[in-house]
Amino acid sequence: QSVLTQPPSASGTPGQRVTISCSGRHSNIGNNVVSWYQHLPGAAPKLLIFNQDQRPSGVPDRFSGSKSGTSASLAISGLQSEDEADYYCASWDDSLNGWVFGGGTKVTVL
Amino acid sequence: QITLKESGPQLVKPTQTLTLTCTFSGFSLSNNEVGVGWIRQSPGKALEWLALIYWDDDTRYTPSLRSRLTVTKDTSTNQVVLKLTNVDPVDTGTYYCAHLMMVTAFAFDVWGQGTMVTVSS
Q: From the centroid of its chain, how far is CA A46?
């Protein structure tokens, strides 16, 4: 059972917009920044979003993040086949004094 | 350019100690506001954060494994070592090390390719 709660799956057709939610508590998302990672099978996880809404250089602007209270969201607009992957949210947790990850969301492009 | 690479045994017997090494380049763990984390993924499961070591030798561990984990660093060789004692088949998985950026952001921005570990007799 992960500390941060994500839906196990999400899907869309090419070109559609998909949104993934990440629910936490005051001790993690409510009080700390959120990051999002894309994990393709057999590859290293890749940082997509940091500080809840900032993209590292090289990440397409189709990916966007937001945070409100104790929840965060990742949106993928203009969905492409190469976006099929697992997506994880993460944050520092003040109570656990460590990092926590979400359970991951598998995005399927129909 | 920051790179990290994990190394260690592919197969470990139950009750043994697993020792993994993360060799990195492109940054120094003696610089302020830098850290290296360890994260694993068991088969079919989510990413799980294990441990973190900061530039000042401060360490953090996931509560459920704190008694079994140790993380150390060697700034002269640019390596971070993770030890997990008394391993069990549930410790099977892919282990990643990652650079923790702490200036202007707080996230694991660069990850190693991961090393797969199987715990079996």
A: 11
Residue type, A23: S
The pair of three-digit structure tokens given for residue B72, joined into one six-digit string: 């150390």
Q: Are B80 and B73 in contact (CB under 8 A)?
A: yes
Interface residue A92 vs chain B (CB under 8 A):
yes
Query: Is A96 within 8 Å of B106 when comparing Cβ atoms?
Result: no
Alpha-carbon distances, residue A88 vs A4, A22, A105, B46, B121 (angstroms): 9, 9, 7, 8, 32
The single residue listed with the structure tokens 């509560």 is: B63
Report chain A residues whose CB lies below 8 A from the CB of B98.
Answer: 45
- Of A23, A44, A12, the C-alpha closest to A103 is A23
Q: Pull the structure tokens for residue B81.
A: 């070592």
**Amino acid type, B46:** A
Geometric angle at alpha carbon B82, from B66 and B63, rounded to 5°: 15
- Per-residue model confidence as pLDDT tens digits over B44-95: 999 999 999 999 999 999 999 999 999 999 999 999 999 999 999 999 999 9
Inspect the interface and report whether the beta carbons of B52 and A99 lie closer than 8 Å: yes
Q: How far apart are CA A25 and CA A70, in angstroms?
A: 5
